[in-house]
Design brief:
Blueprint: E1 3-4, E2 8-10, E3 17-19, E4 21-23, E5 31-32, E6 41-51, E7 58-66, E8 76-82, E9 93-99, E10 106-110, E11 119-126, E12 138-147, E13 160-169, E14 174-176, E15 187-189
Antiparallel strand pairs: 1-4, 2-3, 4-5, 6-7, 7-8, 8-9, 10-11, 11-12, 12-13, 14-15
């Protein structure tokens, strides 16, 4: 099996880009994967990699900035997938419902349960403080969506707010499901 370091970001380059660093040698050597394709984005930042399926598909959750002027552009999160162990990635798919201030988020993927064919994706990110202060890191919210093994939304599914964890200043979250097969409990840590 491969080990994955927190994905990398080349800061200070124009544009910022995201990539995976992975090891097939139990950490004795590391390989720099190809950059995630920019698509229509000016910047890709603060990525997180999560193992997606038994076929060892990977999902990368990325904070993205559209190609428009970043001062006026809304930040979103996007998903990119790899079927090559992190060596190459698909063009990021922007998640329109996951508008976020300039702050990373976290992704957790729960396996299909009870005969379902789709995976439950949980994404946590601050959503701002309404129209007055949309860039403030407020309202840490968990969103959910049902995703098929090919990375597409299940029929009738969309990214929807599941719960708001903290309505005050909150950001930089991490999620964990210690025993996803035996429990519905999800842990969220944030600052």
């Amino acid at each position: 099996g491969s080990y994955y370091e927190k994905p990398g970001v080349m800061w200070g380059t124009d544009p910022n880009c995201a990539y995976a660093i992975y090891s097939d040698t139990h950490g004795s050597s590391w390989t720099h994967g190809e950059d995630v394709p920019m698509g229509g984005f000016k910047s890709l930042g603060e990525p997180q990699i999560v193992l997606f399926s038994p076929a060892r598909r990977l999902a990368m959750f990325i904070r993205t900035v559209p190609s428009a002027n970043p001062v006026q552009a809304k930040y979103h999160h996007s998903l990119s997938f790899s079927d090559t162990g992190g060596q190459t990635w698909t063009h990021p798919m922007q998640l329109e419902q996951l508008y976020t201030p300039s702050c990373d988020g976290s992704l957790l993927i729960l396996p299909p349960r009870g005969g379902a064919q789709s995976y439950t994706f949980l994404a946590a990110a601050p959503t701002g403080d309404g129209a007055k202060y949309p860039e403030w890191r407020h309202n840490l919210t968990v969103f959910s969506a049902d995703i098929e093994a090919d990375g597409n939304l299940s029929s009738g599914s969309s990214w929807r707010p599941y719960t708001t964890i903290d309505r005050s200043f909150a950001g930089y979250s991490s999620m964990l499901s210690a025993v996803p097969e035996a429990s519905n409990r999800v842990h969220v840590a944030y600052d």
